[in-house]
Amino acid sequence: MEPKSWTSLYPPDVDARMPVRHASLVDAWHARVERNPDSVALAYFDGELTARQLDEESDALAVALQSLGAGRGDRVGIYLQNIPQYAIVLLALWKLGATALILNPMYRRQELRRLVDDSGAIGLVCADTDVEELTQTLTEGTVGWLVSTSALDYQTRNDPRIFPTTERSMAARQGDLVELVNRFRGSRPAAVDLTRDDVALLAYTSGTTGPPKGAMNTHGNLLAVTSTYGAWIGLEPGDVVFAMAPLFHITGVVVNASIALLADTTLVLANRFQAEVTLDAFAEHEMTFTIGSITAYNALYELPHATREHFASAKALYSGGAPIPPATVDRFEERFGVYIHNGYGMTETSSAVIAVPPGVRAPVHQPSGTLSIGVPLPNLNARVVDAGGTPLPPGEQGELELSGPAVVPGYWNKPEATSATMPGGRLRTGDGAIIDEQGWVYLVDRLKDQINVSGYKVWPREVEDALYEHPAVHEAAVVGEPDDYRGESVVAYVSLTAGSEATGEELITFTRERLAAYKSPRTVHIIPELPKTQTGKIRRNVLRESAAADAGR
Fold first, then answer.
1. Cβ(222)–Cβ(232) below 8 Å
2. Would you give the distance in Å from CA 64 to the centre of its chain?
3. Residue by residue, what is the 3-state secondary structure of 169-204?
């Protein structure tokens, strides 16, 4: 890959071509343990695990999962928040040559069942509080066993802001994770001859089109991102990485968890994001790096007792997943003295592949007022193409296309979708972009209907399908509305069947029973008739303009 103009913007110690030094994530993990086995690898409130202890815990769990039938190539779901067990399960599965199916624990019922069955997962690790519901949801599906765990384990502080009760729920029938680890403690799984082509993570995304598809993130993909991004942010032994992004999201599992686990750093976990707890953890553990959605940073900003001292140890703060208004970055820096750097990645690129260099202020694209998302990282080829795939010159707007070792080989069991989205291995992102003469990338338009809520991708059809289950709904259309806090909010426009009655609040409650909370509309407009084309197709663009006008009032 030839050097590009943007390499002149790279940090001094970052090479335009960075080799990957390990054959698999397991090799990289073992190298970390050998380098410094007694360094703290995980911190969770007042609990800690050294690299050696984490290695032993994951060895024992790997043997336990093997006794349940897990092996090379099998998919096993992880349905957890940011707790130490997430890292233990990841390492255990990778040591078996199995694939971790990362699942959002906000998913419920059919939206969860569809992903699990599509993946063919044979088992699932979940919180003990979810065992009863999951047993019902997954019955007669592909999942043959459940292992549960408690978020109370691996710490003793029991912070009431995170743990409203210290009572434990009943464990899954196949066992509690900690009990299984203790039962198999001292055992080690047989080594598996992994390659960079083995699939490490199966992460479902709506991608650039259609319903969710499982992106096959390989060991090579993750190694490419963790090595380049680690060098980019200047990660050093002794650094402290706070997992602000959820680990069930590609950003959290790769650029928070994996990047920290494979280096001589400490990964700090604090369960589900809670602003006050996060702020305390920054100070207690002397956080040096984190990445999260702009929504999380906004929540920290709104805490009246937050001061510059909470961020005093930070070397670099990054945000990804949703566009950041320039005014938000300026306001945050003025109060706390730290600049939020933009980053960009997709599930199909195994997280961050474009980022603002540390210590550099991103320029603003003057015609659109858009803050740059950064420059392409080492080993990434980025270009802007027209509708036919022809590259466009600097400064012209088209579709952002990416290629390189971070781009996944395809979607699970979806060759047609793979061919359409990644022709010749080149990822058509669906994002409208401009790359200037220096190599700065700007996202300037949304080419698809997908909605971006605090970094989470929402496909309108899924929300519309939930609305259509209500007997009073005649027609429904869902669009994104600009939102200073979340990036975008989900807004629905609904017409009712003749003689029926329903309120917007009633329909919001109805969808929340069927979807994750972030997918449910924040606003439902009841209107007599939805605008349509002459052929009867609902005109989302008209509704989107209406939503944008409402947001601007």
1. no
2. 28
3. CCCCCCCEHHHHHHHCCCCCCCCCCCCCCCEEEEEE
Q: Which amino acid is at 478?
A: V
**Joined tokens for residue 489:** 């909010």
Distance from the first to the final alpha carbon of the chain: 48
**Which spans in 273-372 are helix H?**
275-285, 294-301, 326-336
Q: Which residues pair with 442 in a beta bridge?
A: 434
Residues 147 and 124: their CA atoms lie apart, in Å, by: 6
pLDDT, tens digit, 9 for 90 and up, residues 151-180: 999 999 999 999 999 999 999 999 999 999
Fold of 26-157+172-353+364-369: Rossmann fold (3.40.50)
- 431: tokens are 């994002």
Distance of CA 85 to the CA centre of its chain: 18
Looking at domain 451-551, its CATH superfamily turns out to be ANL, C-terminal domain (3.30.300.30)
pTM of the model: 0.85
Instruction: Quote the tokens at residue 429.
Output: 């992102």
Quick: pLDDT tens for 479-504: 988 888 888 999 999 999 888 899 99
**Residue 435 CA from chain centroid, whole number:** 25
Contact 150, 176 (CB under 8 A): yes
